[in-house]
Amino acid sequence: MPDPHKISVSILSADFTRLGEQIAEAEAAGADWIHVDVMDGHFVPNLTMGPFIVEACRRATQLPLDVHLMVEAPERLIQAFAQAGATYLTVHVENNPNLYRTMQAICELGCKPGVVLNPGTPASTVFPVLPLADMVLVMSVNPGYSGQKFIPAVLPKVTELSQAIQRINPQTLLEIDGGMNIDTLPQARSAGAQVFVAANAIFNHPQGITAGIQALRGCI
Ligand code: DX5
Ligand code: ZN
Fold first, then answer.
1. Chain-centre distance for alpha carbon 64
2. Residues 43-68: pLDDT tens digits?
3. What's the gap in Å between 101 CA and the centre of ligand 2?
4. How far is the CA of 109 from the centre of ligand 1 (A)?
5. What are phi and psi of 170, to 5 degrees?
């Protein structure tokens, strides 16, 4: 069975004047996925990237594109991101009264649906949609910005979700996002996380992107 542990490189801390080059360097250094943080200035205070950037990433790499939608009413936008080349489309449980329907629509568009929980959202909120989920993402910072400090209080939730996934749908991957570095990644891994999103620890590593990825890989 292939190792489920993966590094998803968040381009939120990339140098956007050289995005293609930086993605190519991340891929050569062993990145597994490219993580794209979509923020609308409403669901979270920050405003970032849309389908144009996903489409540019799609041309820059063959790696899976892990698109994290931090937006109000994500169902309005999923078609545009699917057409832009997203592999995973991950939607928040907090702002989505029609979560099951949105995830079905993501499947129908040919993408893999993920569901994401903020630090204060209980694990049980995603249990009903686990049969449909290719991935569950646990936020380990408040969504909105890279470079924030890891919130260790989410670790018991990671373990609770890991156990629920084993029971309900063992195919589902468990991802964690926020404040990952060489100290926090091993804690998240021990708690049961399999996919580790990182921006700051990679793009702001003093020795560069390759060293940043290698340092995190060394913890897996
Ligand atoms: C935060 C984003 C994260 C962010 C992680 O809202 O969802 O993906 O880029 O950044 P670091 O790794 O710097 O915490
Ligand atoms: Zn993210």
1. 11
2. 999 999 999 999 999 999 999 999 99
3. 22
4. 26
5. -60, -10
